[in-house]
Design a protein that fits this description.
alpha+beta, five-stranded antiparallel sheet, globular
């Protein structure tokens, strides 16, 4: 596997990739995942790749010669004469599709998925910097100010620090540090990502870069970053107060009643249920009513031939009393027009009353209404 990250800022672009690949526990190798394309003074582009190594190598090999037709004047477009990064990304997508057309069927017969993900970014004279993520179908998306970075490969371990730190206004060197911290977190948690690393910084409107470095285990800056990041994380963690369970004085208690939900219910006997209407329900006053409302063995019914959800033992929803207290709310609920008949409990009815039930009605009548409401809400 691999991990690559590319960041687009107002000040420039940052690209970082690892170099580890593996085809099993005993087949671990190093292959670079980054390619730099530069035509000094005119264009600067960087390609990062993840996924099946044979596919990504094939795409990179034919990318330099792949051509697509320009609909305007018929001139073939390559990454070397494309007038925009968007057109260059189209060429890359065409290269991916070419490899799929050539090798996709053979890979499928061998049980191998056509799996490749790429990040492609840079700047061509005449327009600003752009950054794209290209998928295995050859389609792509572009980075925006809301999402100024792309990741491919083992992205989850290094994502939190990117989300917390990066904005389009982040300085270039600070973004490079953030990318290295993201990589260090991934190296710490995932053995399929490994050194050496390739790091490239591109400054806006330079159309070239000499800030290209290969980082190995003995790189002094990366060793310092790794040690300091671990130390500072531990210091910050230790500075946070632990939860207080014993009732001692604290400014940040954890044992407080939640505003929106109830505490988790314990299951203490085999008869306990996660959802249970108890006998204390104000709508249920006698055994006959409870039996009348018991729908636990409901069968499938039409007109849609859809199986009706299995109901709880007593479908008397006391919360509905406050939920449909006005005629406007009742009319809105009536739009569902899907509920059980209060007489049989097993058929569809199209006769929806014009007003909510009378709360002063006898308990058995109210329970029939709540059964109707339960059916309407559960469809």
């Amino acid at each position: 596997m691999t991990y690559c990250v590319a960041i687009k800022l107002n000040a420039g672009l940052v690209f970082l990739s690892d170099s580890r690949t593996n085809a099993g526990l005993d087949q671990i190798s190093s292959f670079r995942k980054m390619m730099v394309y530069e035509k000094a003074g005119e264009r600067f582009m960087v390609l990062l790749s993840a996924g099946n190594l044979s596919i990504s190598q094939s795409v990179r090999e034919i990318l330099q010669t792949t051509q697509i037709k320009d609909e305007a004047d018929g001139e073939p477009i390559t990454i070397w004469n494309a007038r925009s990064m968007f057109d260059a990304a189209r060429v890359l997508g065409a290269a991916v599709r070419h490899v799929h057309e050539r090798d996709g069927a053979s890979l499928k017969r061998s049980g191998v998925d056509f799996n490749v993900s790429m990040v492609f970014g840079g700047q061509i004279q005449g327009e600003g910097m752009r950054l794209f993520q290209v998928y295995s179908a050859g389609n792509f998306i572009e980075a925006t100010s809301e999402t100024p970075y792309f990741q491919v490969g083992e992205s989850k371990y290094g994502k939190p620090v990117l989300d917390r730190v990066l904005t389009p206004e982040t300085p270039l060197d600070e973004a490079a540090k953030c990318a290295l911290v993201s990589m260090d977190s991934t190296l710490k948690s995932n053995l399929s990502v490994g050194l050496p690393l390739d790091l490239v910084l591109y400054e806006a409107d330079r159309f070239g870069s000499d800030k290209i470095v290969c980082i190995t285990e003995d790189n002094p800056y990366f060793r310092m970053l790794h040690d300091r990041w671990g130390e500072k994380l531990r210091q910050v963690f230790d500075s946070i107060e632990s939860p207080n369970w014993g009732g001692e004085a604290t400014e940040v208690p954890i044992m407080v009643p939640p505003a929106r939900c109830k505490p988790l219910k314990k299951i203490t006997t085999p008869r306990d249920k996660l959802i249970l209407a108890t006998a204390t329900n104000p709508c249920v006053t006698d055994t006959a009513t409870e039996k009348q409302l018991s729908l636990h063995d409901t069968k499938s019914f039409s007109p849609t031939e859809t199986a009706f959800p299995r109901a709880p033992t007593v479908c008397c929803l006391t919360t509905c009393a406050s939920a449909v207290s006005t005629s406007a709310q009742w009319t809105a609920l009536a739009t569902t027009r899907a509920f059980l008949s209060p007489t049989t409990g097993r058929t569809w009815s199209s006769n929806w009353p014009s007003s909510p039930p009378n709360r002063c009605a006898p308990p058995a009548a109210r329970c029939t209404w709540w059964a109707i409401l339960w059916a309407a809400f559960s469809v």
